[in-house]
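Q: How do we represent a protein-ligand complex in a form that can be generated token by token?
A: Start from the inputs.
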Amino acid sequence: MNLKPIISALCSVFFLGVAQSNAQTIRPLKGDTVKIWPKSEWNGVVGRPYKQHIPVQITVHHEGGKLLGLNDDAKQRLKNIQTWGMGPDRKWADVPYHLLIAPDGTVYQGRDPLTVGETNTEYDPTGHLLVCFLGNYNQQKLDEKLLKVLTNLLADQCIKYGISPTKISTHKDHSKQTTCPGEDIYSYFKSGYIVDEVTKEQGVRSKGG
Ligand SMILES: [Zn+2]
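Then emit the structure tokens for the protein with zinc ion bound:
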């Protein structure tokens, strides 16, 4: 495989390690609306141990490498990222992100959400739940379906970890060294759309809607 697109990807974020002992046993919690497919779905291997944390905010990324279309193999892309990241080039403990979204809206489990990453940009990812779109959203665009998957997934995670929607942001909000999550995704954060929609969704759910 050509590693250059992957090296340029991952938004210069170095996430080290995670024990993935629970990766195959993740179950939807009550109230989850978005199915998260386990690592076995994309043939991922168990990550290596790393320090733990509890997510207190959510940060959205894009992979930032090659485009990924609807007809491209998102599972293979994810597997390639893990294989490269855990290999001799980086020696990471696992795929760099906790949750990954394919262009068709399928959500995959990445590293254990209860473990910390590491970054070589200037923010400390401790406490950040990392949600990443596969592909490059400086060139791709979110469609209505992906926006709905994102806002529902974010609402699920806010409820799961007791995180306020106002604590959802993007990589570039924490770092001057990256354009991640790409121009198109960032536009929905800049306008306030994402936080507004997640807040509304939480309101609907709390009323039993
Ligand atoms: Zn990023």
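The mean pLDDT is 86. Helices lie at 4-8, 74-86, 144-161, 171-174, 183-190, 193-206.
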